[in-house]
Amino acid sequence: SSTAWALPRLDTHKGWLFKWTNYLKGYQRRWFVLSNGLLSYYRTQAEMGHTCRGTIPLATAHIELGDACHLLITNGGRSYHLKATSEPECQHWLSTLQQAKVNANALIHHSGKTCTLQGPGPHDARFLSQGALKTLASKLDDLSTCNELIGKHGAALQRSLSEFEDLRGCVDGADKLKTVNERAALFRITSNAMINACRDFLDVAQSHNRRWQKTLQHEQEQRHYLETTIEQLAKQHNSLETAWREKPTSYTGETHRVQRSREVDESDENDEFFDAMEDAPSFITVNAETKHRCRFCVDTKRIVLSLYALPSSSLRRTRRSRIPDKPNYSLNLWSIMKNCIGKDLSKIPMPVNFNEPLSMLQRLTEDVEYSELLDRAARCDSSLEQMCLVAAFSVSSYSTTIHRTSKPFNPLLGETYELDRLQEYGYRSICEQVSHHPPAAAHHVASQRGWTLWQHITIDSKFRGKYISVMPLGKIHLQFHSSGNHYVWSKVTSTVHNIIVGKLWIDQSGDIDIVNSTTKDTCHLKFSPYSYFSRDVPRKVTGMVEDIEGTAHYILSGTWDEKMESAKIVDSSQRSGGSEGKQKTVYQTLQPKLLWKKYPLPDNAENMHYFSSLALTLNEPEEGVAPTDSRMRPDQRLMEAGLWDEANTQKQRLEECQRLERKRREVQTMQAMEEALFCLWQEVEVYQPMWFEKRTDETTRESSYVYRGGYWEAKERQDWSMCPEIF
């Protein structure tokens, strides 16, 4: 039907309005631009090309009319007071903004519906596209007719009212007639604006019609090609499997070729991979016209073979891909934070409005989201290439923080979190909160694909007035089983800006020094802090990989929110640079090679706390986990469900219970110390974690908590009798 193709129109409007700034300057004249459901403002029209002073999303905004040409727009706890020069202009802005809000919400609703629909065939798509344009053109004709009638009747109404005003001498009556006259003029202006916007929409739709059809045809051709290729591969695989069962001994050589093909495939060296494919013509035959199609078939073959080789018992569990949308509750951050300047944020009670529905233990677990980088590194023969992948892995842990300015829940003492991904990715992870003041967590990850990672992180956070600094203290350890290479590094400082005013944004800054304690290879990574005046790419990361002698072998570059690349150094030279004549090393490198690229965020991520696909599954209920697991935490569960008032009540209850438990332990400690007065230098143990113990690391000579074992065995027995009741 025609209604299925009706899209809301795109609103565009520009003009001057007065915006309230502060009590010193009062109202200031600003240039406002309404476009695509967003109301942006600038100091001057010339600023439109480079400097936007602020943007208001109208889809979630509340718009109301004040007194004397005033408009009030409220969004996300912030209010914007605007003033027009006249009442008709104010009414015009009000109707335009309200219509833009309706259209923005309709467009979001329409996008959510169309994402779940199956794409039409080529003929159906062309027919529907042309039909949609015809429908729009027909509707536009109707609107044009209505607009002409409205214009005629509006003009006649104005003439009649003017004549009536001349005949009547009453002052009050004249004022009322003047107001009605202005409303009639405003009605005609609104109609003209509506018809112009509809005409613009039709022009855009017509100009993009050919592009849509071409893109759709290309995608359908690719889909058909993929289906045909998969069918051929499936037939060849079945015939090969049948032949091997009939004569397994005569296909030993072919089995060796298949194994070699897989090994070369995993090394990501395309040339070697294609040579291996040519050595095994009886294994698979693909007729490719271009190198692009050949690569496409190779990737398809890889997927199909992995599916056929997968036993039925190891099919992956389907995990959730969305959580309830975040409610739009407003809260004044500054009213709470103004009393916290210079204090440790871990000691300040906060409502859940500032949180995201994950604990710090779950955020720590997100470090292994790109575990495939370590899987690839475990297969590297070169320690320098391995170092490049480890460096990319260390950067990837920050990719999910770009939009996530909310605070994770502070774990309770003894709280744990497990992540079992043996089926999907070959690893399983366990975290435990080992200290509350200062807050510290221990983390251990064991992978069946050749590596083990562990870390003991203490969080130090300070509020500086305009920003919050979060400084993770501690070392991250990574060891590969086959080579024994042991890597150690630390984290950089995270800073949340615009605490007092403006939109919150996060930045990562500092240096990371990765050391391979086995070979003494090193990698220095620099996270450049954001600067308004810098010409560098925002969120830039650069680095260099050197061997034990200090010789540079690889240059690393990228951004911590998008990707990292490595370029192999083939030559270097010394050049003098600058006015001081200092020597500068210039490196000549090969073409950069992609090491890591960020996964795209799920659909509707902006309404789900900007969680990644992994983060969406972290709080998913699972059977058999420990009773101290973060999934069991009631305040966090209620917040995820959108019940924030109930979550705040539970959060206060848990924090009070934790304070009482801490006082009880302090009393026990004092009693133990009094009993030990006759035994000088006797150490009194205050608290012992359940699954981690304190040891001195042989590499760094630092004391840290490491996994003592026993968790997964207890889970297999379902024996949690030793776990404390913390929730």
UniProtKB/TrEMBL annotation:
* Residue ranges annotated for the PH domain, each copy included: 10-102
User: What is the top-level taxon of the source organism?
Assistant: Eukaryota
Coarse class of the primary localization is membrane
One GO MF term, please? cholesterol binding
Q: Where does the UniProt annotation locate this protein? A: Membrane
**Has UniProt tagged this entry with the keyword Membrane?**
yes
Gene Ontology biological process terms in this record: lipid transport
SMART domains (UniProt xref):
PH (SM00233)
Chain intervals with Basic and acidic residues compositional bias = 248-264
Q: Which GO terms describe its cellular component?
A: cytosol; perinuclear endoplasmic reticulum; plasma membrane
Protein's membrane topology: Peripheral membrane protein
Q: SUPFAM superfamilies, alphabetically?
A: Oxysterol-binding protein-like (SSF144000), PH domain-like (SSF50729)
Task: Enumerate the UniProt keywords alphabetically.
Answer: Lipid transport, Lipid-binding, Membrane, Phosphoprotein, Transport
| Annotated region described as Disordered, given as residue ranges | 248-267
Claim: Transferase is one of the keywords in the record: no
Q: Name one Pfam family in it.
A: PH
The record ties this protein, via PROSITE patterns, to: OSBP, PH_DOMAIN
Q: Into which family does the record put it?
A: Belongs to the OSBP family.
The entry's protein name is Oxysterol-binding protein
What is the native source organism of this protein?
Answer: Hippocampus comes
Q: Identify the taxonomic lineage of the organism of origin.
A: Eukaryota, Metazoa, Chordata, Craniata, Vertebrata
